[in-house]
Structure formats: C-alpha cells, structure tokens
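WARN retry 2 of 3 for item q-0093 after timeout on previous attempt; input resubmitted unchanged.
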Amino acid sequence: MVQVLSGIAYDCDVLVIGGGIVGLSTAYAITRSAPGTRVVVLEKEAGPARHQTGRNSGVIHSGIYYKPGSLKARYAVRGAAEMVKFCAEYGIAHAVTGKLIVATERSELPRLHGLVQRGRENGIPVRELGAAQIAEYEPEVEGLAAIHVGTTGVCDFVGVARQLAEASGAEIRYGAEVRRIDRRPELGVAVLTGAGDVVRARVLVNCAGLHCDEVARLTGDDPGMRIVPFRGEYYTLARPELVRGLVYPVPDPAFPFLGVHLTRGIDGGVHIGPNAVPALAREGYDWGTVRPRELGATLAWPGSWQIARRHWRYGTGELRRSVSRRAFTTAVRRLLPAVTPDDLVPSAAGVRAQAVLRDGTLVDDFLIREGARAVHVLNAPSPAATASLPIGREVARRALETLRSA
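OK item q-0093 returned
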C-alpha cells in the first residue's frame, strides 16, 4: 500500500536504515507512539542483529560508568530496567546476575571509589567490598577491593531484536543494501537498494551503525565525525566453573572501552574479552578481512592519526594481546589467577562502531543529529543494546516531529 501526497507515491512515512537493535527499537517506538504510521526498515543482511547487536557480551549494563546527566547514564539506567521487563514480558532469555568491578592495583582504588560516587549520583545501588569479601561472590577472583552492582544482568539481545521487529508491525526488508539516497527537502527521500528497488519515504532515519557516517553523507548531511572501527576479540573459558557471574576490571577513564572482563552468559558459558584493536574494515572481524577503500577512508581521517599519536602505548598493549594468547591470559589473570592459556578457546569477535571527531576526540556519549527530513544516529556503541528502548523512543520522537512538520 502506498500513500499519494503532492503527486508523490510514498512507500512509507518513515524509512529506517539498519536492522540492529537500535533501528528496530526505533521502528517499534514509532508505531507504538503513532499508530498507523507506516514504517519500512532496510537491512542489508539476511536477518536482524548481525553486527554490533549480535556480537557483544550480552550484558545488560547498569549505567554506573557514565557521566551523570549524559544520555548514556540516563538511558542505560532506564533501559536496563525496561530491558528486563521487556524480556520477561516476551519470554526472552535473561537473568539479573549483578557484577563485580575489581581493583587489582592500588592505583585503581581512587577510580573504584569514584565509581561508587558515580553510581550513587546515577541512582544505582552499589555495595563496597574488601578483599576478603570478594570471595562471597567469586571464590576464584582476587583483588584489593571491589564493588558489587546488583542491577547488571545478561540477556539474548538477538532475541530482543527479533521481538522488536515482530511487535513493531513495520515492514522489514532483509538483503536490502542501500546504494544511493536522493533527498529533496520539499518532497522526501528516495533510496535505491542493491536489488534495484526504490523506496520512497517522507522521513529517513539512519541507524546504520558501522556505516552510519556513510549513510549520512549519502543523504547529503555532513556528520562531522567518522566511524573508526575497533575489533573486540573474545575467548570462551574452557572451565566455566571458575566464574559464577560477571567480573570487570576498573576502567581507564581515558578510553570508552571497559577492558577485558568475564561474563557468564545466558547459555551458561563464560566469555572473556574484549580487547580493542583497529579493524581493517568496517566489518573486519579478523586480521584477514581487509577492505582497502574502507581502510583508506579511516587512514585519511585526521582523527585516526590523532588517536594513534595520543594512545600508541595503550594500543601497543592491545595489539600484543591480540596476537598472543599468552599475553591475553596475563591480562585475565589479574582478575582470575587460576586461568591458563589452555583455558582460552577462541570465540567470535565483534566490531565497535566508534565515532571519532576530526581532532581525534572519541565521542563519549550517544550522538543523534538531524538534517532535512532525516535523523541520524551517529554514535551508539555500548551500552546501546541495554539502552535501546529509550534510544528508540528518542529517535522516534525526533522522526515524528520531522514527519509532522514535513
């Protein structure tokens, strides 16, 4: 069914590009907020959640790490509670396990105490633990001190994405890679897919994740940033009985990455990781995947060189852990002394879509920008899966406002 307005045959009111959890949550929020709004989602893969959504550690984050008042803090705290409720309502596998954040060096203690304060400011209950109390939760984990965050959990985010797609009532088109976008502010947008189909809409929503900056430029908007892909490599623990729940190190505030952590997933297995190394393609899930055009675009962005200049020492350590299982094991043993290299079984990697500004600043918060007849989600890495329901509502609100004023 198409709607004819001003002589234009529109296939939908809102066209969402990207079938990850944020795009599908946006479609869900639009149809819930404005019943009757016709939404089409274009996803280039054969199914939903094939990239960031389906290749993370499956953690429902509490929101303790994020600056009070930021979108990440507000949406993660709210989103964690909503995600648990959503999973319970639809019978999606989940568990609220709690987690430990463990300081293993004296230099980390001030940062650990800072997290306690940040948790309180964000409304998150936190229990402080001495070295001896860590064993109450994790007998095999050692540290100088720790905090226990009870609202952290795990879930099947791919299952959540599938349910959002079904419950949204949107038309989901898989295998529909976007090739060209023709935006005319007085009329709307027309998108050409790789299959040769043209989809016409009144408003476009860009939730393309690893390719969001490219989609913004195809639309005619300057995103002011570039996605620099970082691969996170994981191992599975051969002796899962060593870990009961979730164990994290104290993060370095200079980086958006949380460090190598231990996660008992909903399947009962324990995943270890990720590290953070440059990916040689937007979807570079291993060192053998190299796409010269994409790599060239990353190297041509001034911000990439600024990152390398400022953080080369940190990056060198991450690269060493990428190529050496023994070096990775050494990092894990800071938290879990009993682990050996033979305990680490290689697992599927993920790629983080990290927005980087021209001056090398790693965008720390979620970033949503608007253009004529368009809303662009330009930075939505972790904890975006946790926060996907509130993010989807915010993007939907902007899209519907754009639709009403079109």
